[in-house]
Task: inverse folding
């Protein structure tokens, strides 16, 4: 009987051990599966807080999280700066920048640029304001003095017609106001009058009916056209607009690469074609994508070859016709190098014969002796200067303000 009882007890113990061993094996297997799943889970980015990681691990062990292996960087992207439906474009640009591993730059605000422009003009080596006021401050101005006054204006590339008008206006005002006249105030008033144009200086960068504004940029190769477009994109971003660039200068391989580099810095995409592709088709694709993505502004670069005027006219005319099939072109900007003086004015006439230029961008307007080209261009063409380049920096592009310009020049006097 004892032996039978011992055998029964042994059998019970064995069964218990088998059951306990099975439970332990199940626990061990569950632990191993959790550890294996953790190893398959992508490593968390450094920006994830430690407490968040602990919470995720806890949810995994408790079975709350359904799929711990899902990527953790699928958080909602930052809202787009677009004022109408530009979310997709903003999200895509941000995603591309993050994948590239770089951080988006924050462009300088327009108001800050204007203050910097005035300071640069006043502190430049320009002697225009100083030379003009030196003549006007003399007693009993003679014919020779007025000739010197006019020559100073001509040397600044103000232009013959504009120089004569300014001279006559200043001389007449001083004669009427008499001995109590303030030469500086009179000169300031007449220079402002010479810079005043009936056209609006605001950039027409917004479209209608939910469509983007389309800005066509033209100019001679070497005038800083492509660089200006990159800076204009930064200015638009600084003002809270979403932008798309069109690289329609397909005959210069570096142009599209330049635009891409500029765009990547601020999260702006570029539509480009193969080298030598039809520029008009690239412009059309850019406008079409701008509409589909709901961006605020599409900016299109164009070729600037002047060796054959007929070909230039044909190409730019085609680009404008084809690009405007989806939505109208709202602005056509002509980029001129301010240091070229009257040569720049000659270039301007050629382009105005090709396309309907609505605004001028003057690059390298840093208060040098060629700054008078602003007056000459507006006088000869009747087209307002809308933007000016201040130097070589990425944010050295600002809206043009005639009062700031005149005060900057006279501020150094």
Result:
């Amino acid at each position: 009987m004892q032996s039978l009882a011992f055998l029964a007890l042994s059998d019970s113990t064995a069964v218990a051990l088998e059951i306990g061993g099975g439970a332990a094996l199940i626990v061990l297997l569950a632990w191993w599966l959790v550890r294996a799943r953790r190893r398959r889970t992508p490593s968390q980015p450094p920006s994830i807080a430690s407490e968040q990681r602990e919470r995720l691990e806890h949810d995994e062990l408790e079975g709350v999280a359904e799929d711990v292996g899902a990527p953790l960087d699928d958080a909602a992207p930052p809202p787009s700066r677009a004022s109408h439906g530009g979310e997709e474009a903003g999200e895509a640009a941000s995603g591309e920048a993050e994948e590239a591993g770089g951080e988006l730059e924050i462009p300088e605000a327009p108001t800050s640029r204007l203050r910097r422009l005035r300071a640069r003009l006043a502190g430049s080596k320009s002697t225009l304001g100083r030379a003009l006021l030196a003549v006007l401050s003399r007693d009993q101005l003679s014919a020779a003095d007025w000739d010197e006054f006019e020559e100073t204006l001509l040397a600044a590339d103000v232009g013959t017609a504009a120089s004569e008008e300014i001279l006559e206006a200043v001389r007449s005002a001083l004669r009427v106001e008499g001995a109590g006249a303030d030469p500086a105030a009179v000169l300031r008033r007449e220079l402002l009058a010479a810079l005043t144009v009936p056209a609006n200086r605001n950039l027409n960068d917004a479209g209608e009916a939910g469509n983007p504004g389309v800005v066509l940029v033209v100019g001679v190769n070497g005038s800083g056209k492509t660089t200006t477009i990159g800076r204009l994109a930064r200015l638009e971003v600084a003002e809270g607009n979403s932008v798309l660039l069109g690289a329609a200068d397909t005959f210069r391989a570096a142009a599209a690469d330049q635009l891409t580099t500029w765009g990547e810095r601020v999260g702006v995409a570029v539509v480009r074609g193969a080298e030598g592709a039809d520029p008009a088709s690239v412009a059309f694709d850019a406008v079409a994508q701008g509409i589909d993505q709901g961006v605020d502004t599409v900016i299109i670069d164009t070729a600037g070859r002047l060796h054959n005027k007929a070909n230039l006219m044909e190409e730019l005319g085609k680009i404008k016709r084809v690009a405007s099939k989806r939505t109208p072109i709202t602005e056509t900007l002509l980029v001129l190098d301010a240091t070229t003086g009257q040569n720049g004015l000659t270039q301007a006439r050629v382009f105005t014969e090709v396309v309907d230029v609505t605004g001028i961008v003057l690059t390298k307007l840093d208060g040098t002796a060629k700054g008078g080209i602003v007056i000459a261009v507006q006088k000869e063409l009747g087209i307002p200067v809308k933007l000016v380049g201040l130097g070589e920096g990425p944010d050295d592009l600002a809206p043009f303000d005639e009062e700031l310009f005149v005060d900057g020049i006279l501020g150094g006097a």
Remarks:
- The chain has a mean pLDDT of 75.
- Residues 2-40 form the longest helix (39 residues).
